[in-house]
Design goal:
There is one protein chain. The relative contact order is 0.18. The chain starts with a strand and ends in a 14-residue tail after the last helix. By secondary structure, the protein is of the alpha+beta class. The longest helix is centred in the last third of the chain and has 19 residues. Helix 2 packs parallel to helix 19. It has 19 helices and 27 strands. Bound molecules: flavin-adenine dinucleotide. Flavin-adenine dinucleotide binds next to helix 2, helix 4, strand 13, helix 9 and helix 19.
């Protein structure tokens, strides 16, 4: 039954005018018990929305897309408010187990692990940065035996989804035109961008397109953005096809279990809860999990697919013994540093973001609110710890320059995202007058080739109980040392004449807990990182893709669960080794390719309906 949730509809009304004809309200469908569909997709996130679009290109296939959350809205569209969204019910609110070497001084001594619970999934919560990674990231997947996943084989899928709106890149062979997903630069040009570019040049780096031929260099962030507003996968891939008759979207619906015949090891549907009612729906062809690295792994295990011993501990009858939940990888970053400049017009902090002028500019698709998650510059570099990488041109450290900093977070929004306590904030920054706190910006190092690996386990056989997530950040000591090297590179950037022209300096109050270590020594930075390092929200790998026979694998290169029928996974969880990049674009690529694999396996030609005019 098709219905309209009044709250969803109401929040949708606030979207700015004029309306793009491709955008519009997705109505809600409640399936009846035992209703049959050709394919059931679990999760309407970065991957799920792409899959729903591509599979409904076959008119005779009836598709059900099931999502635990509701609609995105006016506020989630505002790029600079990305951090705020993680404090709302659009976030699943997962936490890690207490970590030994990260998040030690954060609220509850745990790392917050935000994940989207909304149509568009984490592409609604994310910082909009569009980054694909290094060609060797994908060539390495292929070398592991995952045929079909080399860079030259996945590049067409990156391009297929893309509608590049950056004029200087429109003719690049690395970018696509006419796809569903708009990629643009933020209309707002941060004054810091000019300094960052000059600093990079002073240090010998080129200003370049990091999604092009070479990754290492300094750049302006490319963003999943449409006219200065967030372009989630829901907006990009679902809304334009909202009138397709063979697509049904069930919102506010939580899948509790995959239905599996234990005798034939074939999946035949799912059980979901909606408005307190349990409904079973049947898949005539396949169930496709796109519930993300946490959701897909958890669903498999509560349904009997996972490590046998662990499942028995949880009193779940094992159906197939596979290493689900292992191989959890993520990018970790260090975000407490604030740099002070002598010119208030350079930075974007709370006062500017909250000003009526910024709001008016935003309604016209301009102004500082359009900065993607506040990011104004990216740099990709190699630390000495990248020497053991066989690829000589792959970066292991990324620098993300924010137009503001944690010190300027007077309203407490960034603090909430990071899990930083008010007490910590005041100990660090209260010595700075309010006015000076607004004159600060940040450059954060990100470890993009981590060696440390975590694990996700169940707490119970009930999907509603959040799983136990051990990230194991910095378990390998080289990871911590590489990140300290990132701090040193940032110091070089700040030391360039470009930044020194504005007397840029580090706010040098020692991090709480590190006061007894010599300030600015490597040991000091190791301590500071362990106190406040946080996730960049790129968890991947819990349902690792490998060829058959590899005991570490959960899905095949065709994304089918090893040893089963009728069950596929297509989301961030299948990634065997995390790319040196933000993960939204790689996940969208995975879903594009997965759709073609599914069509091939069911004997369908490759049908696509990209827009020809990408304006
Ligand atoms: C705060 C944040 C910032 C980020 N910043 C960036 C960035 O700037 N650039 C970038 O490239 N990447 C970024 N990422 C990462 C990127 O967004 C994710 O890697 C990507 O969105 C993952 O896609 P996915 O399809 O695997 O999972 P998701 O997009 O998380 O989708 C999973 C969907 O499944 C639903 N679901 C889960 N379980 C169930 C269930 N049982 N029943 C029904 N529905 C269910 C969820 O509600 C969700 O909608 C960020 C992520 C976050 C959270």
């Amino acid at each position: 039954m098709e219905t309209t949730n009044l709250f969803d509809f109401w929040t949708d009304l606030f979207r700015p005018l004029p309306r793009n004809p491709r955008e519009g309200f997705m109505s809600d469908y409640t399936p009846i018990d035992q209703e049959e569909f050709d394919f059931i997709i679990v999760g309407a996130g970065s991957a799920g929305c792409v899959l729903a679009n591509r599979l409904t290109e076959i008119p005779e296939w009836k598709i059900l897309l099931i999502e635990a959350g509701g609609n995105e809205n006016f506020f989630s569209d505002i790029p600079i408010f990305a951090a705020f969204l993680s404090t709302t019910p659009m976030n699943w609110m997962y936490n890690s187990e207490p970590e030994q070497k990260a998040c030690r001084d954060l609220r509850g001594n745990v790392c917050f692990l935000p994940r989207g619970k909304v149509l568009g999934g984490s592409s609604v919560l994310n910082f909009l940065i569009y980054q694909r990674g290094h060609p060797d990231d994908y060539d390495d997947w292929a070398k592991m035996g995952n045929h079909g996943w080399s860079y030259s084989e996945v590049l067409p899928y990156f391009k297929k989804s893309e509608n590049i709106k950056i004029s200087s890149l429109r003719n690049s062979t690395y970018h696509g035109r006419g796809g569903y997903l708009d990629i643009e630069y933020a209309p707002y040009k941060s004054p810091l961008e000019r300094l960052f570019k000059r600093a990079g040049e002073e240090l010998g780096y080129e200003w370049r397109d990091p999604n092009g031929e070479q990754v290492i260099g300094f750049s302006k962030p490319q963003a999943t953005m449409r006219n200065g507003r967030r372009c989630s996968t829901s907006k990009a891939f679902l809304e334009p096809i909202r009138f397709r008759r063979n697509l049904k979207v069930s919102k506010h619906s939580m899948v509790n279990k995959i239905l599996i015949d234990p005798r034939t090891k074939t999946s035949y549907g799912v059980e979901l809860t909606k408005q307190m009612k349990r409904i079973r729906v049947r898949a005539l062809r396949e169930v496709i999990l796109a519930a993300g690295s946490i959701g897909s792994a958890q669903l498999l295990m509560v349904s009997g697919v996972g490590p046998e011993e662990h499942l028995r501990e949880m009193e779940i009858e094992p159906v197939v013994n596979l290493p689900v939940g292992y191989n959890l990888q993520d990018h970790v970053t260090f975000s407490g540093n604030a740099f002070i400049v002598n010119d208030s017009s350079l930075t974007v902090n709370d006062m500017l973001a909250a000003s009526p002028l910024s709001a008016i500019a935003y309604l016209a698709g301009r102004g500082p609110l359009t900065l993607p998650g506040g990011a104004a510059g990216l740099a990709f570099t190699r630390s000495p710890y990248a020497m053991d990488d066989h690829s000589p041109t792959r970066p292991d450290i990324e620098l993300v320059m924010g137009g503001g900093s944690l010190a300027g977070d007077l309203l407490g929004i960034l603090r909430s995202l990071l899990g930083v306590t008010d007490q910590w904030y005041y100990r660090m920054y209260s010595s700075l007058p309010m006015r000076v706190r607004q004159n600060t910006f940040s450059i954060n190092p990100v470890l993009i080739r981590p060696r440390s690996i975590g694990r996700l386990k169940l707490r119970s056989g009930n999907f509603s109980d959040h799983p136990s997530i051990k990230m194991n950040y910095f378990d390998d000591p080289k990871d911590l040392k590489a990140l300290v090297n990132g701090v040193r590179l940032i110091q070089q950037v700040i030391g360039t004449s470009a930044f020194q022209q504005y007397e840029t300096r580090l706010h040098d109050v020692p991090f709480p807990g590190c006061e007894n270590v010599l300030f600015d020594s490597d040991q000091y930075w190791e301590c500071a990182i362990m106190q406040t390092a946080i996730t960049l929200d790129h968890q991947v790998g819990t349902c690792k893709m490998t060829p058959a026979g590899d005991p570490s694998g959960v899905v095949s290169p065709r994304l089918l669960i090893h040893g089963m029928r009728g069950l596929r996974v297509a989301d961030a969880s299948i990634i065997p080794r995390i790319p040196a990049a933000h993960t939204n674009a790689p996940v969208i690529m995975i879903a594009e390719k997965a759709a073609d694999l599914i069509k091939e396996d069911w004997g369908m030609h490759r049908v696509t309906t990209n827009f020809i005019d990408g304006s």
